[in-house]
Design goal:
By secondary structure, this protein is of the alpha/beta class. It contains 16 helices and 17 strands. It folds into two domains: 205 residues, Aspartate Aminotransferase, domain 1; 234 residues, Type I PLP-dependent aspartate aminotransferase-like (Major domain) (Aspartate Aminotransferase, domain 2). It has a seven-stranded mixed beta sheet with strand order 3-13-12-9-8-4-5, with helices on both faces. Strands 11-10-15 form a three-stranded antiparallel beta sheet, with no helix packed on it. The chain has a three-stranded antiparallel beta sheet with strand order 14-16-17.
Length: 484
């Protein structure tokens, strides 16, 4: 897709919003000053010319403004907005809505859909999109599906495991990762997440291994890759099949290898909220022809006749295996266009997240899910920050209330833990009853100690600077939050 970039200037609001000029200039320098610094250093005494001295002594042009001699100090102790003080974030709401809107469809997508409707040819787009996705991910085989849930269902059918086989799944996930197993008489083993990463905890999986365990299904939460090298090594040692739920992780990779291709099979969702949105849609990824043919024929009755004559699935031409999971062609058309700009959009979002998080994580008790250097994450849904509320001595409700009063778009959403839901506690749905863990401390910690900030899909130094200033203002007076 042609990525629409919104460039919000500082200069057009200087008179009425002078309070944000300084943090915006600071954001500019922290984000873009390295090249300038290197140029100065090349012509100066490198041992004396540091980044700090550059920040203190240089005159930097930001959006046409000359801003000199500013510091990185925390803001003065202004009265919190929640206590009647002035609101920090004065960025126009309509511009914020434009910067954070998702999905982002433009005139190109509208024309593609209209052209398809006018052409009266629909299904030709499906193999074209499959080919493009296969080339992008370097997966041996791929198959379109109507959504991520149908892709998961087809993946579990393709496994062809004996009844009663146990499959390790996270409890911190959408229900389809776990619940689709029951249609094939498989049983979930609920695995915790690592509180440092909010992804699969391989040590917990090791503790819960049983003689009936046949496969593991890590889910790349919020676009952050699971530690697939550790998971794969352990699974290989124990003879387990590795699968992937990559519904959040379009474009993410580890050690140069795209998510969805680490396991023997994997899935993506293209639902409207996802990193690559097609309103609805899904994709299956397969390392072997056997898995591919079984998964494809489960949901597409037209596929078996296309398989080689010696394929064991080919005799099922005309019926497949009883489901119809074909992706909607209009969704595939949207997905094709979104794929063209996927890496560019991911890079823009990451740049904005880094500009914000690199500053916010300097604050006491603020971290973000750990991403290893060899992992390339993407950002799904919102920007998750982890807050140690016990350490800080105030509640999440108090923090959210204070930040909202300052004008920050902040919320939290506790992921429903699958192991606590009714259907897993009723034996009639399962070959044998799933074991319900007494506690899952990783799930509990992430759910209780996170907040979400918006993802920004355009150039917005002013907005980012105001968010940083709002956090620093609240943190400077965090002792008062206990009474808010």
């Amino acid at each position: 897709m042609a990525v629409p970039v919104l460039n919000i200037s500082l200069s057009h609001r200087v008179k009425q919003m002078s309070c944000i000029i300084l943090p915006a200039a600071q954001y500019f320098v922290e984000t873009y000053s390295q090249d300038i610094l290197m140029q100065h250093a090349a012509n100066s005494n490198a041992s004396q010319y540091t980044r700090r001295s550059f920040l203190k002594s240089s005159t930097v042009m930001v959006a046409g403004l000359s801003v000199a001699d500013f510091s990185l100090a925390a803001p003065a102790k202004e009265t919190l907005a929640v206590s009647g003080g002035a609101k920090t974030v004065t960025f126009p709401r309509e511009e914020l809505a434009a910067l954070t809107k998702w999905p982002r469809y433009g005139e190109v997508e509208k024309k593609i859909v209209c052209d398809m409707l006018d052409s009266n040819r629909y299904y030709d787009v499906l193999p074209v999109f499959e080919k493009e996705w296969q080339e992008y991910t370097q997966s041996p085989f791929v198959k379109n599906h109507i959504n991520g849930t149908s892709a998961l269902t087809s993946m579990y059918f393709a496994l062809d495991l004996p009844p009663g086989s146990e499959v390790m799944v996270p409890s911190y996930t959408f229900f389809a990762t776990c619940l689709a197993l029951r249609f094939f008489n498989c049983v979930p083993i609920f695995v915790d997440i690592d509180p440092k990463t909010a992804t699969w905890d391989v040590e917990d999986a090791k503790r819960k291994l049983t003689p009936r365990t046949r496969a593991v299904v890590p889910m790349h939460s919020w676009g952050l890759p699971c530690q697939m090298d550790l998971i794969s090594d352990w699974a290989r040692e124990k003879g387990l099949i590795v699968l992937e739920d990559a519904a959040h992780a379009h474009g993410a990779s580890m050690m140069g290898k795209k998510m969805g291709t680490w396991g023997m099979m994997g899935i993506f969702s293209f639902q409207a909220s996802k990193v690559l949105p097609a309103i609805e849609g899904g994709m299956g990824m397969y390392q072997t022809r056997e898995y591919y043919e079984r998964a494809a024929a489960f949901g597409e009755y037209n596929d078996p006749i296309k398989f080689p004559p010696d394929s064991p699935v080919r005799p099922y031409a005309g019926t497949g295996f009883g489901q119809k999971y074909r992706m909607h062609p209009l969704g595939a058309a949207l997905a094709r266009q979104q794929l063209k700009g996927l890496d560019q959009m991911n890079a823009l979002v990451e740049k904005n997240v880094r500009a914000m998080n690199d500053r916010l994580t300097r604050l006491t008790g603020v971290t973000e899910p750990l991403c290893r250097p060899e992992q390339k994450r993407v950002y799904y849904h919102r920007n998750m920050l982890l807050i140690d509320f016990k350490k800080l001595g105030f509640t999440r409700d108090a923090l959210v209330k204070a930040l909202k009063a300052e004008g920050v778009d902040v919320n939290f959403w506790d992921y429903p833990e699958q192991h606590k839901l009714k259907i897993y506690a009723e034996a009639k749905w399962w070959h044998h009853p799933p074991t319900i863990p007494a506690s899952m401390p990783g799930n509990a910690y992430i759910n209780a100690n996170h907040i979400f900030l918006p993802l920004i899909y355009g150039e917005a130094p002013e907005l980012i600077a105001q968010y940083i200033q709002a956090f620093e203002k609240v943190w400077a007076q965090r002792a008062n939050l206990a009474s808010v």
